[in-house]
Amino acid sequence: YGNFALAGSIFLDSRNDESFKDPYSLLYGHHMDNSKMFGDLNLYKDEVFFSENQTGTLILPDRVYKLEIYACLVVPSSEESIFDPQRWQGDIDDLLKFADSNALYLNEIAMEKAMNSTDGDPQILALTTCSSEFTDARTVILAVMKPYVQQQNKTVE
Fold first, then answer.
1. Are strands 11-12 and 24-28 parallel, antiparallel or unpaired?
2. Chain segment 46-92, per-residue pLDDT in tens
3. DSSP assignment, residue 137?
4. Which has the closest alpha carbon to 70: 39, 37, 38, 92?
5. Rounded to the nearest 5 degrees, what angle is found at the Cα of 15, between the Cα atoms of 14 and 17?
6. Angstrom distance (rounded) from CA 88 to CA 142
7. Using alpha carbons only, what angle is made at residue 41 by residues 136 and 92, rounded to the nearest 5 degrees?
8. If 88 and its partner were Cys, which of 24, 35, 100, 137 is the partner (CB 3.0–4.6 Å)?
């Protein structure tokens, strides 16, 4: 909203379209205590938590997306495959391959659906926060964005 916040806020990479229409969108958030901002993203580094928590929701002013989480990675903040969203605006196949090769954990079913999508390239959302494995480490969660569609008072995927 443009107001000052001492702790900052979750924000979309400035190179992304603010309407979330890009094939790959990148959200940053601080790792904060008490589950604030992206304080819980690091929970995905636990295999059991990852396997039990593979969906989410992205609510925008004009639409809603179901998120199918397909990968958890720990990468340096300089990793261009994650932190250069313009790299994937044409074709995200190599991003899917990068995740497949570098993820701590993968949701194979969501990954296969994304790779074999008949609706063209899927939209991918990356959520990232600081991590403590090494200097400038970042935890990254990758999710496929599926729009919810309203049809005669029903919500369908």
1. antiparallel
2. 999 999 999 999 999 999 999 999 999 999 999 999 999 988 877 78
3. E
4. 92
5. 90
6. 13
7. 80
8. 24
Q: Which DSSP state fits 15?
A: T
Structure tokens at 70: 């397909």
**Composition of the chain by helix, strand, coil, percent to 5:** 25, 35, 40
User: 150 forms bridges with which residues in the sheet?
Assistant: 155
Cβ pair 51, 149 in contact under 8 A:
no
**Spatial separation of the C-alpha atoms in residues 105 and 33, rounded to whole Å:** 24
Helix axes 93-102, 108-115, angle to 10 degrees: 160
Torsion of CA 31, 32, 36, 37, to 10 degrees: -30
Whether the Cβ atoms of residue 125 and residue 25 lie closer than 8 Å to each other: yes
pTM exceeds cut of 0.85: yes
What does the chain come to in residues?
157
